[in-house]
Amino acid sequence: MFSVLRNRNFALLWSGELISILGDWLMVLALPFYIFDLTNSVLATGGTFIAMSVPRLLLGSLGGVFADRWDRRLVMIATNLLRAAILLLLLLAHSPSLLWLIYAVTLLESAISQFFMPAKSALIPQIVSSQELVAANSLDSFSEAVTRLLGPSLGGALYAFFGIISIVAIDSSSYLVAALCLLLITFRPQIRPQPAAPASAGAQATPKALWLKLWHELVDGLQVVRTEPVLRAIFTGMGVMMVGEGILDVLLVAFTRDILHGNASTLGWIMAAQGMGALLASVVSQQVIRRLQPRYLIMLSFGIMGMFLIIIINTPIFAIDLVLMAIIGALLVWAMVTAQTLMQKATSDSYRGRVFGSYNTVLSLMVLIGMGISSVGAGLLGTAVLLDISGAIFALSALPFIKIPAMSLVSIPTPAEPSALTESPIPVKPS
């Protein structure tokens, strides 16, 4: 896996992202604590998570359109610089009357991130070879697991000793470092086909026409998902799984308290076990993924995860639950890395941004649906029943992957580039 770091461009991308993600995880823990310290309100604290979630639904697919239209590396540099600047506004929010500023910063940062994420997912296949793609995605997963383990505890310590100023300074600086790493990347990007000139090319495009063309390009990306069996299976299966994930996220605290009869420390151990499983799985992801056909690996992962969740819920023995949660963390990494690589290989470069933008939007929507189900159903069905349903949903999410062709991941050919994209007056900036 680490051999892909010999690729200078990917090493720069990965190093910058590792630092940036660590900064994000510091903020994920510190900002809700800061809001609670300011307001002493759980409701006000929850508003932060709403501000983070709304842009994922509204802008995720749109960000993918621009990732296919503009130089992806420049998009990522610009978004990192913007996020670094916007975060500094949090230094002004030092009283409850300025709570709106914290929400505005959170909303803006999340909105800008929706342009970064599809650009990153689409850029990776441009800077690594097809043979390196599994290793690159595995290393990406490794960095996420490492920062997830280290970030919250480090963020808590920094916030306790130095306050929110230290967190803002580190997170903002991490975006600057990531932007610098991206600036140092040198490669000859694949030339994506230019859009056909519209019939009214001589006339001045109106804002309505521009938005209409944006919509048509977004629909083009969704059409690729609809017509490609691999993408259709991933969107369906992962979407179903995220409903179960949403239910689990909301009820995990209730499960710890009411079924395990534990406390916050107990929940911390459960999350750490899952994180450690994910970390160890990331190290061997390349070896595991290359030895199994993608559909079998994903189907087995989700099927076993669903079964283990049901066992955990109905056999509340803490030591056993920790082991099973670690295995679940490992299986989830293998399934997600496999799905990411499949999507990159099954999509031509001209559509990757839109496909990944739509994918992020779908997953965010399905998580919210799962959260809504758990919020409404907990009082009617109880925690244990809903969690059993969550486990069953995880298992059922394996079924759509039956339709993925039986082939090795390394043998899946990348589709040929289309001869021309849908006509659009949106300028295509030189790569």
TrEMBL record:
The chain crosses the membrane at residues 12-35, 41-59, 80-103, 158-185, 233-255, 267-284, 296-317, 323-343, 355-374, 380-402. Its main location: membrane. PROSITE patterns: MFS. Residues 9-409 form the Major facilitator superfamily (MFS) profile domain. It is found in: Cell membrane. It is a multi-pass membrane protein. Gene3D superfamilies: MFS general substrate transporter like domains. The keyword Acyltransferase does not apply. It comes from the Bacteria. This is MFS transporter. It comes from Dictyobacter aurantiacus.
